[in-house]
Protein 1
Amino acid sequence: MTSATEPNATLVTSTPGEMRRVAAQLVGVPIPLVVLCANGVYPLNLHEFSCGYPLVIYVYPGSEASPEGGGDTALMDAVQHRAFRERQSDLEARGYRTIGVSSQAAHAQRRAMLKGRLNHRLLSDPRLELAELLQLPTFTDERVRLYRRLTLIVHDGHIVKVFFPVGSAGRSAAQAVAWMTLQGIS
């Protein structure tokens, strides 16, 4: 396994134990100071935003490529966007805001927002700065490094829960809401 801080490195997470370790090591970690393009238009300081609002950050590949032979396609990204759009009122009722992050170009995310009628922010991270700073899992397809799908629950600027791997893109928003319910966040 190579270090995730090396350029073009891939954090290999193939076994359930490795996946649990990735999730466990992120809990308690502060959201780093990183400014990403939001909604294809304006910069957003993710650290400052996470200190001001509880967040659900879903990270997705934003590509046709898949580390598991088809599980992380553009179709699955669209399914996940819709799932968070449909659960937005549940999350907002609990005080949480939703953000999607991928390595997609800002103009591609803008199209996805319009097509999916999304009300939440999508952040473009083409240099995978967040992956580097948090050592998030990635994969490489045709020499392009992409995010693996995961969900972060953030409160007071710190990660409090990580869902990795995401078993179903269409159920990831419901999974976050169910966890909040179990934690008494209503």
Note: Confidence is low (pLDDT under 50) at residues 1-10.
Protein 2
Amino acid sequence: MFCTDDHVGYVLSCNRFDRGPDYFEMTRQWLEDYWNSYYFSHFRRDRYLFSADRAVNGAFGAFDSASMVYKHWVRQFYKQGYGGQQVLANYGVDATLADTWTMASLDGVNDLIKVMSVPPSGTYLYFDQNASGNSGRYFGCQDPTTREQRSCWAAVDQGDEFRFKDDAGANVLGQIYQYYYGAEYSQFGDWRRAWLGRGEGRRMYSRYDFRSGFGFFNRMVEVGHYYDQFGAMFAAVMPQVTFLDADDTSDQRRYSIPYYLVFGEELSRTFGNIWSNNEADRAPTVSYALDASGTPNPRRLTVTHQNRIHGERYVQGFSYPLDSGTPPADTKPSSAAIETTWSARIYSIYLGMALFNVNYDLDYSKENQVFRVGSAESFPVQSSDGYELVTVDDPTSGAKYAAIRSLAPDARMTPAVAAILQTRNRWQDYENAPAADKTIYLEIFKDGVRDLDMMRGMYAVYGKVF
């Protein structure tokens, strides 16, 4: 179709460089282009000028474009307008377009959440939930809140140690993790190790050419995946949208349509899990890849992501997307230990609290409410109302921190409660630590207290409408 730059965004079918006959195909190519451009946007490949800009902008551009499909979908199918508006002709949408439009909206937000759960690439070892070595259980497979151990595949080398690349070095690496954490021994005569390649797995932290000498920090070799998470997070919280047939500046709240407006519970859960380091709830499944004959390859791993948002919850009888299913048992499917960077954590709470409330919805802010007991922030909580206080003492300052926990049997643990429990666990670790290690564990505990103070500060700013 012919359209000018002035129509981009206003008319959904008018976009620069899009492909496809309908909104589903448009969205699919945006998402495919994003995932397939990884090797071109994240590696220097001898280019003179190279930075993380293309990775950030690529993620934001893909998911911002996909969010426009969702925003127009919300307006079309959840209706709009009121008596005081100009009355324009409104033609119905046929069933096929309605279905593919809904599919496109669900694919966009599901792939955005998938960005937050990509595991690292590299050499993996398998840790059974009951495995234990001389240093206890592997911390990467442990829930920091409940301290529950899960079976998982964990990356133990991401290409940083060349001495672990050959079979002899890999066996040394396996022996180290078996001795300290009980990594599983393979029936193939060596340590159960396998490789998850770049693409399905992505290095979370950037690499730099440190051998190049002075200023090497300006010579990035590989862009860390956390830049993609930045871009996706910004796209997730942006509420702006424009329509050709509406005065969207005179009633901005009516046309403020972030993903959170419809998919609030799923996005709250995802952003909250990032901040509270709850990797198990968003981790994908890792298993042996199948070769051409359908036989599991014990040297190659593959990733299966589960879609977090399903159409039947929002459109009656609309079963899309289809469940990815569980890989065959002989491929040893298990949860992956993924990495969460500090930058991703702070952006998840900052962007969530600042922009999930653009329509005066303070639910996410309330989930992150932490306060000091006895201060002007605190207030009484009665169990008869269905809530209780979860507290932790800070012996280094004498303060007591608290969060509100619902007593409902199906209540989800909020980030605030998770932060309190994690800080409580850290103090127990300090008390149980040998004398030589107490200084280290005390600093770890103080890090938890700093998290609580940051949550207090965020709530003081974003926990109110005005």
Note: Residues 53-77 form the longest helix (25 residues).
Protein 3
Amino acid sequence: MTGSYDPDLNLTYWGTGNPGPDFNVSQRPGDNLYSDSVVALDADTGKLKWYFQYTPNDAYDYDSVQVPVLVDMDWKDKNGQSKPRKMMFWANRNGLFYGIDRSSGEFLLGKPFVEVNWMKGFDEKGRPMRTPAGPAVIVPGPERRIVDLEAHRPAEALARSARRIGKCSSFHGMSALNPSRQMI
């Protein structure tokens, strides 16, 4: 995992991993602070300046260890006025593309770059609003059944599902970003 550094702000930006245990959210209630996030650290002291959490209480293994892209550009505010901003763009493993003000951590943009079924939009602070059912996977094999990843299953059932999924050559945790699609 590689972070990014802004010499003007003297901040380093790092993505963080997912919480554990991965798929059993009943064992770790709450947002699981700082997991699946970007953290902005003072380069001299290492102190946290701000953070933004992409997938609170992640039940899907959507870690945030992608490389942040830093861009200085004009950005239109809510009134349509264009102003220079220090932006950070992030194509997250959760299937969403983000634009964040890298000075403050303010959420400015969020949109899917692949089809997502685990969330239906964002609140005003950029927190994803989950769909009621959450994502599911089709377990290959003779039974070919659907497994709800949000269901609270015993560890034995979870391990059995993981073994089946591990044998499937077509199971993919994330699709590649299509660069021909305009995100901003």
Note: Helices lie at 155-166.
Protein 4
Amino acid sequence: MQRLAAPESAIEAFENALRYNPKDSRLAEKIGKALVSTHDYRKAQDYYDNALRNMPDNTALRYDMARLYTKLRMFNDSAKTLTKALSNFDEDDEDGVNPPGLDVLTKDVETLLLLVETYKESGEKEEMKNTLLRARNIQRMVMERARSAGEGKSTQRTTGSEICYMLAQCAEEEKDDDTAIDYYKEGLENSVHEPSMLSLSKVHLRKHNIQECEDMCRSLLRVASKKEEASMIMGDLMFIKGEYEKATVQYFNLLAKNPNNYIAMEKIVSLLRRSGKLQDAPSLFEKAEVKDPRSSSHAGLYFSKGLYYRYTNNIMDAIKHFNLARRDGEWGSKALANMIDIYTNPDGSNLWEDGEGGLDGTNRESIRVAEKLLREVRSDEERRLERSDSISTVPRSYTTNNLPTRRFAPRLIALRLIAARGARA
């Protein structure tokens, strides 16, 4: 019956079957999901209400109803629905007269994790964190009892790791790296959890905990199903340590497996410049285009080519390729920064540091273009900083003390003064 093409036919078939077996909870769940699939959400809500009155202990139905409320952005209703599924157990009083069984505790953790999803969607960060802490405390009891009973040990440890991972992510959003490290480590004591290992490596790299980062990366490379990100971190680590040849080899190995890894490509172009081997860069661009014909219009490839042309003093082609990347969400800010740098310092003469004389017409036009680009960068910065209040995608280095406007504004002011002096002369 699940394979019936029309949801309406499936609903009718399920309802007929349920009349013969009104206690069949799985049929009730199927009817609710079929109603949701028709987008008749009001009818689905009414159905769940009635079904839960008849089957108040059907947790799966309650979960489905909560998910529907979350989908409809009815977050308070979702939270209330899930709260009713929780037992009355107080995790601070585990040794009470009638401690709940393992199955009750496990169900509480599952319910709390669904509550976390609701709070995450609604943006209630404090409620989300407090609910995760409660889930962590109960999950510790679950793992201890499962260990004693020899039941589901691996599964429960994985759940414990997942909870610690989410708590660590909350700490990272709050810019509390030390607490994040503690949670990641706690999770890894429970089980081998690749996302925790990868994130812990990144935190150690950001804090310049070189040895800890290297140790974690090597452990991750031994167990990871996908090794690309761990290999990238190893390359970054070698670069920070000044082991430029090893870093170059690491990035070359990454590009050999995935020629369209533009983050590695950008870094390798800079390393080739450092080693005086920029002639090796064009072959990397060609391999990327052969591997994926659509890559010829990828902002990462445009940016990497822009760097190559800039480093080989082909300024016009550099500007052309940076301009093609400047509207991209990932590569745009760096492309704009390079363009401003070129327009305010086209030949490396550092005119803003020289107080003598003035600027010719070409340089005055460059200033006007640079100012226009700087306004574009400022708008992008404001959008990023606004988003950083609610999401964690903004890089930690992207702060008000390390913005492109802060970097270039003094240079432009100096150039304006020189231009004004030249105009009066």
Note: The longest helix spans residues 361-387.
